[in-house]
């Protein structure tokens, strides 16, 4: 079982059921894809990294850093920042639900960056979600 993939699924599940996010981005536009989406606004499930937390010799604690990319078509960053704020609220609303034997001990948005695309038409937000995952002994 991939801890990283399970965290990604849980993040998408949280975002596609959080009313504040859905008021700004349709669930069908919260995607796992490799390119800027055609329909905007959108949230792209991006790069990730899994790191052994080093707290157990059994190697059952993993910290996952998952990057989300928020895309909007606007001259300002206002809409992008609103979406990122709702993503933060969604993630901070409670622990992520993971498949057994995994347990999300903590989940937080550790950083958000806002960028103006060079084309002058798009705004881009980068949100880093950290999740501390514990795996139950088999």
TrEMBL record:
Highest taxon of source: Bacteria
InterPro entries, per the entry: Gp17-like, Viral_Tail_Comp_sf
Full protein name: Uncharacterized protein DUF3168
Lineage: Bacteria, Pseudomonadati, Pseudomonadota, Alphaproteobacteria, Rhodobacterales
